[in-house]
Design goal:
about 350 residues, mainly alpha, 13 helices, 2 strands, about 75% helix, about 0% strand, globular
Length: about 350
Amino acid sequence: MALELPLAFEIISFVVLTLIIVADLVLAYRRPHIPSTRESALWVAFYVVLALIFAVIMFFVGGSEHAGQFVAGWLTEYSLSIDNLFVFVIIMARFSVPRKYQQEVLMVGIILALIFRGIFILLGATIIENFSAVFYLFGLFLLYTAYNQAFTNHDDETETENKLIKFLRKRIAITDDYDGAKIRTVIDGKKIFTPILIVFIAIGTTDIVFALDSIPAIFGITQSPFIVFAANVFALMGLRQLYFLLGDLIDKLVYLHYGIAFILGFIGVKLFFHALHENELPFINGGEHVDWAPEISTLMSLAVIILSMAVAVIASLIKIRIDKNRAALEPAGSVDDK
C-alpha cells in the first residue's frame, strides 16, 4: 500500500517550485536574447534531472506508487507540452515575433498555461470527489481528443484565433510594428497596443485548449491534485529552452502527434475501465461496480507512454533521414533524365 504524502512535503515542494518559476521568469525578462543550442540543452537537461530527483525524493517520502504516478504524469504532460510547442511555433511565425523577444513571449505563455491548468486541476479534483461518474466523461473526451489529435491539422486549430484577432483589430488600435516586448507603445502622443497583445491572446487561447486536454489525461494516471500539479509544473519547466533547442526540428517530427494521440486514447480507455470499477450509475450493471473490467497499473501506463513517444520520435527521425537522402539524390536524377 502506498504511503501518504506528508503535508509538509507538499507545502515545501510548492514553495520551491514557485521560487524556481519566479527565478526563470525574472531571468527571461532581464536577459532577453536568443539562447544558443548549448545553453538551451543545458537548461533542458537541468529541468529533466530536477524532475527525476523529485521522483526519487517522492519514492522515499511516499513510496513507489506515488513516484511512478508522478513520472507517468510528468511524461504525459511533457509530451502534450511539446505538442503545445507546435502551436507556439505557428503563432510566432504567423505574427513575425522577433526571435530576440520570443523568450519573453514563451514565458508568458507558460505562466498562463500554469494558471489555466491550476484552475482546471482544482475543478477536476472537486468534480471527481463529488461525482465519480465523471471518469466516463473524461474517458470519452480523451478518446475524442485522441481522434482529433491524429486526424486534424494544427493549422485548423487556429481558425478560432483568427476570428478573434480580426474582431480585436476592428475594435482596438493595434500597430503593425513591434516595440520590443511592450504590449503598448506611444505613437504621435497616443498609447496604442502592439501586436504582442494579439500574440498573448493567441497563446492564451491555445493554453486553454491544451489544459482541457491534459488535465483529464493526467487524472487518468493519478487522482492526487498535488501530483497532478507537480507533474504539470515540471513538464512546463524548460519548455521555453526546449523551443529554442528543437528549433525547426519541431515541425519535422511529423509522427509525434500520432504518438500523443495513442497515449491520449490509451488513457481514455484506462479511465473508462476505472469508471466501471467505481461505477455508481444505476443503468450500468444495476449501479454496482464492474469487477471484470481490467485495472491498468501505473507501471503499464508508464511503459506505454515511453514506448509510444519513443516510436513516434524515432519514426519521425527516420523519415527526416529518408527525405534528406531523397533530396540529395533528386538533382543527380534530374540531370541523368536530361
